[in-house]
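@channel sequence for tomorrow's demo:
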Amino acid sequence: MNTKLQRVLIALTLVNLVVLTLLLTQTKAAESHSTAPVLRGRALEIVDENGNVRATIQLIPGRTDGTFPETVILRLIDAKGKPLVKIGGSTQGSALSLVGDNDGTYVVLKAEADASLKMLNKNGKEQVIKP
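structure tokens (generated this afternoon):
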């Protein structure tokens, strides 16, 4: 093979390697910058494979008369559409609610002006604990 042709082929190979390296570097940089650092929105819903809402995070506006403050709430929902876990927060405090399956049991923990723990068992017996 001609030495001149060999030099041209080697030069083309080196140029191709440089171009490939630059393209790979730019692709990696583009991938790392394409991820948004923050997800912003008014609400978030997680749905199952059937399109049923299974979890939500919402901002519920307060009432203008001040009787209900603006509240952020997280709900975890079972396959039947029943919220089993609720976590909420507002300027008045926060609360956690855990609901039993279908037997009517629940636990509500509030950290507001009057903190309390309220429990109800399947027999309808309720107990409230306050400091």
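heads up for whoever presents: The chain has a mean pLDDT of 86.
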